[in-house]
Amino acid sequence: MKKQTKLDQYEGVEIPQNICRIHKENRLFLPLNQTWYNLLLEGQKEWEIRGVSDTFNQKTVKIGRSIEIRKGYQNDSIWGIIKDKFTVNSIQEIPKPIYDKTIPPSVQEDPEVTKFIKEYFKKYDKFILFKIEIQSE
User: Fold this and answer.
1) Is residue 129 part of a domain?
2) How many domains does the chain fold into?
3) What is the pTM of this model?
4) Domain that holds residue 95
5) By CB neighbour count within 10 A (0-12 exposed, 13-18 middle, 19+ buried), where does 104 fall?
6) Which of 51, 69, 102, 108 lies 20 to 30 Å (CA to CA) from residue 84?
């Protein structure tokens, strides 16, 4: 088996240290409904909140991990990298600037969104928030 060489070994070739790469084989899958998906694409939403579970927890939501985002379970994916994370016990613990990038002001007064949020927050005792940076492949 031929040993691969690293490009940064060669004089004159520089590889950025903080380069973000999409690793599809070890991605975290994030299905979103139409509203949240569009807000993420438009840049209004940068943070996602999920109840802590087997799928979304401190071990699975890792900074630097690739994330595949889909509108529901449709085939078209957008890809991102998890850039930051933290956990809270209630919605009141989320700092306002992060809350506004999780649930943008443009939808905070929507009755359907308000109802969904209230019902969702009743289901879990703890929540994990993570910042998503959309990547072009």
Assistant:
1) yes
2) 1
3) 0.80
4) 20-135
5) buried
6) 108
Summarised one tens digit per residue, pLDDT across range 12-33 is 545 444 445 566 778 999 999 9
8 Å CB contact between 128 and 58:
yes
One-letter amino acid for residue 57 of the chain:
N
Give a yes or no: residue 47 inside a domain: yes
Q: Which CATH number do you get for residue 113?
A: 2.30.130.30
The pair of three-digit structure tokens given for residue 3, joined into one six-digit string: 């040993």
The pLDDT tens digits for 23-60 are 677 899 999 999 999 999 999 999 999 999 999 999 99
